[in-house]
Specification:
Number of strands: 0
Structural class: mainly alpha
Strand content: under 5%
Number of domains: 2
Order of helices and strands: HHHHHHHHH
Radius of gyration: 26 Å
Distance between the termini: 75 Å
Largest sheet: none
Number of helices: 9
């Protein structure tokens, strides 16, 4: 560990409460505060020339982190409530008789997912596989849900595994594909 890193750790331990007080005057952002600590500590570990004033450097990095965190959500597009109202539990707007076997299977799978999983997990699944023209990335899903990409991936994959494990859906999925084939006799 470099000498600057040791000095930074001692300085941060001694000034932790004072830094929080000063930065809370402007409404302290906990995540930005901890991200700044990690950034400055890494800089202190790798610095060759050293950091002359830890407090000034920390405050400047914190200000940059807060601005970055406030700009990032505005840059992302999140579906509004109207998007999810279209996916309500009322079912199809097309009469049942006019639906093909594949459409009925899709509606049954979506109903199964809505019954079996929490609302937020259903939203993530729908954004990932069903409603988007191209699948949303797990990173984008994580930003939408306010979680980590790995957790979003686990939740969506749990839905996929539950659907695949349902034997009734597996049996039904082979019949429509064969019936709608151009080679079916």
């Amino acid at each position: 560990m470099s000498q600057d890193a040791v000095y930074f750790n001692v300085w941060f331990s001694a000034c932790y409460m004072r830094l929080r007080e000063r930065l809370s005057y402007y409404d302290l952002d906990e995540d930005a505060f901890h991200d700044t600590y990690l950034l400055v500590r890494e800089k202190a570990l790798c610095s060759v020339g050293g950091i002359a004033d830890f407090e000034a450097y920390f405050r400047a990095c914190y200000r940059h982190a807060v601005l970055h965190r406030h700009r990032t959500p505005r840059r992302d597009v999140h579906p509004g409530t109207g998007f999810f109202l279209r996916l309500c539990d009322e079912g199809p707007t097309v009469p049942e008789e006019e639906l093909g076997a594949c459409e009925r299977l899709v509606l049954d799978i979506l109903a199964f997912i809505r019954r079996s999983f929490p609302h937020e997990v259903c939203r993530l699944f729908l954004l990932r596989y069903y409603e988007s023209p191209r699948p949303c990335s797990y990173r984008l899903l994580a930003q939408y849900a306010g979680t980590t990409p790995s957790r979003a991936a686990r939740e969506v994959k749990a839905v996929v595994q539950a659907v695949r494990a349902n034997r009734r859906f597996a049996r039904r999925s082979h019949r429509p594909a064969a019936a709608e084939s151009p080679y079916a006799g």
